[in-house]
Amino acid sequence: METQTTVASPPPKPEPPRRNFADARTPRKRLLADKLARWTVIGGGVAVIASILAILLFILVEVVPLLSGATVEDGRRIAVGPDPVGAVLSDEYRTHVALLGMDGTIRLTEIEGGQIALESAIVPDGAAPILAVRSAPSQSMFLAATTDGRLFTRQVDWLVSFVEQTREITGVLSESIAFQLDLDGQRFGAFTAGINDEGEATAAAVLADGTVALVHRSVEENFLSGELTESFERYTSAPPVAVETLVIDADQRNLYGGNARGDLLWWRLDAGAPEAPQIVTSGRGGVTALSLLIGDRSLVVGHDDGTLEIWFPVRNPDESFTLTRIREFAGLTAAVRHIAPSLRNKGFLAADEAGALGLYYSTSARTLWHGPSPVESPTALYFAPRADGAFVAGADGLAELVIDNPHPEVGIRAFFGKVWYEGYTEPAHVWQSTGGTDDFESKLGITPLMVGTLKGTLYSLVLAIPLGVLGAMYTSQFMHDSLKRYVKPTVEIMAALPSVVLGFLAGLWLAPRIEHLLPALLLMLIVLPVIVVAAGALWRSFPLRIRNALPDGTEALIQVVVVAGGIWVCLALNGPFAGFVFGGSFQDWLLDTTGLPYDQRNAVVVGLAMGFAVIPIIFSIAEDAFSNVPRNLVSGSLALGANRWQTVTRIVLPSASPGIFSAIMIGFGRAVGETMIVLMATGNTPIMDWNPFNGFRTLSANIAVEIPEAPQGDTLYRTLFLAALILFIFTFVTNTLAEIVRQRLRKRYAQV
Which CATH code of 1.20.1640.10, 3.40.50.2300, 1.10.3720.10, 3.40.50.300 fits the domain covering 452-748? Predict the structure, then answer.
């Protein structure tokens, strides 16, 4: 019989309670500190994002008004009496108007009350009846042709004074000037006149036989008595085609005409007597109206089909000039009868015989507004001096137009396209925001600034990327730790150098030396890589026992000595090398061979200086990326028989590629936004080409240069904010694409 013994198993040990790090045993201060740190980080991130969005919103608020067009509204009405108005002038504040009636009477009238402040005849008593009247707006002058072949002119001046802080405007009429255009005392057709600040004047008219007559008036002052003596010279020109409309510039150097066949005629008056006219065919309908824009360079041509064109003389290779059509506007629906140029910019108003009006701007080629005339059958049109209003006279009185047109010179084409500016031989991308005269044509092409930004960035990264990335690779994977702890901090300290110091040194110290030593610099591009590779091969040829006997890092110090020696040799050979290869002067050789000029402050200088500023950033981030590659990957590769170079290029480099790419893109952003270096180390000229030996201007440098002089709210002011918006968008898009690429690289090599 078997006896079974049952042994009772001990009871299971109770499991220890799981530790709850958030229970009461965790110090309350630590919990509060964790929460505070978490919310601080979140709040900081939100604040950064909110700040960036606020900056973007502010820039957009300043840029959006550039997109607004012109608004034209009806203003005051002025009763003019029974006589129809043939010409209108006004003061800059639009408080008074000067009206010339078909009866030859000039009436200076206050707009608000309608009182006539001054009334005077443009022709003296006893003169022949008035044939036609018109105005010369840019010279504030009335013209009246009489039936006896004479032309009378009279200027209107507006005197502004302040009495007890109240502005008072007084109109003053000059003495009439009479020009005897037809010696036989016969009536004539189209007529025009111009007068300059010295009192010299020229009148022109088309006589009954088709001859164009010109009379030039000169004035001499007796320096003792102050007495003025006037003299007249008369010239004639018999053009081969009919002339039906005329206009002359204020300096009396150019006379333009047109006819019903669409021909344009241009007389040069530089020598006094008119030369044979240059005749061009517009290819459109008949010319019905002519006017010169401010500056008297651009000719506005109105046709009988309602189209409007801009013409001006263009220089030919043989230094002659040809009257050339520059741009065209859709214009109006009927024959253009009146063109009123702006006295402030390159804008103008036009009216057709059907009563339609249009507002245009020449440089930007924009049609800003179309609308009906506030009066029927317009007989006169005038653009107010401040370009904020206009006056239209017709059979039922005089009407005012209130114009709000703050930014007529802008547009997609003006900003980013080629524009044919006055004085240029062809359309071009140009930035030139200001000039020396009031008739300056603003050139707001942003494209040269964008090209300059990319140009400076490209030449700086050509130097910074190889040195930064390869230097980081060597420091992380090959350099001995005894040297690494000195090299990396030293390079990172370089990033703390102020960019203004680098720009100062580049502009005043480096640029003159590069100009003299550029052949040596070109020689270094060949010599230094060769001697570095040769020195490395020589070091590898030494027996292993000799290399192991030398202190760690000896190979790096040898390379430093080799590079320094190579630089010294290249500098010593600068003169002989320049004489042998470039005939003594690199600058002369460059100009003679390629036609490219050499500027002392150029893209090469900027590339060296800005590359010096970008290298520490790329080096530091790339070195961290190399060092963060897991050591087991490196050890495994070496254990499988790969040498050090194979391990670095095939294992470490791909694994670190996301970080390297981030380093390059951060360096790219640093170069794109750099201001002081490119401002001081280049000629700061917005030249649009990729020649490394001339200057350029970047978006950021342009903002720094122009913003102190830009009136707040002005077109230039808002255009600079547009440049800032472009820079913002450019960096945002670049960084976004870079992050997408970095994430893909990271995902691709995450399993290595």
Answer: 1.10.3720.10
